[in-house]
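Subject: sequence -> structure tokens, single chain

Hey, anyone have a minute? Need the predicted structure for the following. Not urgent.
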Amino acid sequence: MSEACEFPRQNATSEEIREILRTARTVAIVGLSDKPHRPSHGVAAYLQQHGYRIIPVNPNVQEVLGEKAWPSLSDVPEPVDVVDIFRAPDAVPGIVEEAIRKGAKVIWMQEGIVHNEAADRARAAGLKVVMNKCMLKEHRAAGLG
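Reply:
Had a minute. Here:
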């Protein structure tokens, strides 16, 4: 079965998601677009407006929402709490490996993104994993917005 149509075998509970959203402060957004009509841009703007520090990770842009963009997660010079992924499922394993090396606490795969093997790898390294969920929608649903 293709990764793109998989369902999460295991996912964070609603309470775990609320805890992530309450405690995380720095979110590296991998695949963040500088185009305002793109979902990643809308989510990043929302998170920024709600007090999160966003770090754009995209080799094709210089800056997004007033923040310097980095070509890869490994290039980000500061710690991150959450790695929010807006990339195709086949890119997820490499991003997870970078996140583990970086010491991130959470892997968050946006709606439509599931990669069970990469999620297992992240959990084995001690990270929490959220798959196929929108950070903006979950923040609103948790009553934090």
